[in-house]
Task: inverse folding
């Protein structure tokens, strides 16, 4: 589930937390990392749980319309294509999925206002109108609809973001990644495959291949090395930044990124330094300031060559 890119992001964010709270022990830092990683899978489950919840919202509205005083012909005989979608039925009928949501206390019951707003929005979308009017059915068609809903309605949805922020400090930054994993699951369900809780790390999903190295070991070792070498790596950054940059004015996000990159370059000889450099420069585009990319690129390139004596 978690690939190397997102694990690097998790490692960097954990080191940022340590930089902001230097009293954190290594045990505390590793615990923070593990919570952050596991939270992505919890978010994945919560987003999938939205499918039966939104279907129930639609079903409730149809029932209310059917039983109101003097209903229209359309309200008496509604189009139940969405209400009867196979994906919702598959998930709500899967005992493992239901038990896991219950155990983790992941429910949409307290967010009925969001469900109403989301359903109102979805009903107006072209992809939904086309789905409701299509004669072609099947689990693959239903899955494609849900992929459209999750991909189009959740990222950048402020109401959704507020819900996630109230539930977990980790979730907001992971929405797009979790949605992407959900979409992969929906594609599988559309092909008739049974739902299974995905392994937390991509390497665990490919453990039958002896050549695949453990992603869990990678990220735990990366954070441990960066934590233990934090002061030394930090001094490298400050020394190299002067006089062009005031050491006291360096952005903590940039420093944490560079330190994580240095730890990887020095302690993982099987990863080419150029790959490490490119990875952290890419991550810097989304964290820090508009100048972070240039700064992180220049500092990592210089320090890897001149301080770690590695060839890029």
Result:
């Amino acid at each position: 589930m978690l690939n190397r890119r997102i694990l690097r992001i998790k490692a960097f964010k954990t080191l940022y937390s340590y930089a902001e709270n230097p009293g954190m022990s290594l045990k505390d830092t590793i615990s923070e990392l593990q919570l952050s990683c596991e939270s992505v899978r919890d978010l994945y489950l919560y987003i999938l749980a939205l499918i039966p919840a939104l279907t129930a919202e639609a079903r409730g509205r149809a029932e209310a319309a059917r039983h109101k005083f003097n209903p229209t012909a359309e309200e008496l005989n509604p189009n139940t294509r969405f209400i009867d979608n196979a994906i919702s039925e598959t998930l709500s009928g899967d005992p493992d999925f239901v038990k896991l949501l219950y155990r983790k206390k992941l429910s949409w019951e307290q967010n009925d206002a969001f469900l109403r707003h989301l359903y109102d929005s979805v009903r107006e979308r072209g992809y939904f109108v086309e789905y409701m009017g299509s004669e072609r059915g099947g689990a693959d068609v239903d899955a494609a609809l849900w992929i459209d809903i999750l991909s189009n309605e959740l990222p950048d949805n402020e109401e959704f973001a507020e819900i996630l922020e109230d539930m977990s400090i980790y979730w907001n930054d992971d929405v797009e990644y979790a949605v992407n994993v959900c979409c992969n699951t929906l594609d599988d369900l559309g092909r008739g495959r049974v739902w299974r809780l995905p392994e937390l790390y991509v390497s665990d999903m490919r453990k039958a291949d002896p050549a695949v190295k453990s992603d869990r070991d990678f990220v735990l070792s990366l954070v441990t090395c960066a934590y233990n070498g934090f002061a030394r790596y930090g001094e490298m950054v400050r020394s190299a930044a002067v006089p062009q940059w005031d050491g006291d004015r360096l952005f903590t996000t940039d420093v944490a990124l560079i330190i994580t990159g240095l730890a990887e370059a020095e302690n993982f000889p099987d990863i080419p330094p150029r790959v490490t450099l490119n990875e952290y420069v890419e991550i810097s585009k989304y964290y820090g300031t508009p100048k972070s990319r240039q700064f992180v690129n220049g500092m990592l390139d210089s320090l890897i060559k001149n301080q770690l004596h590695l060839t890029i």
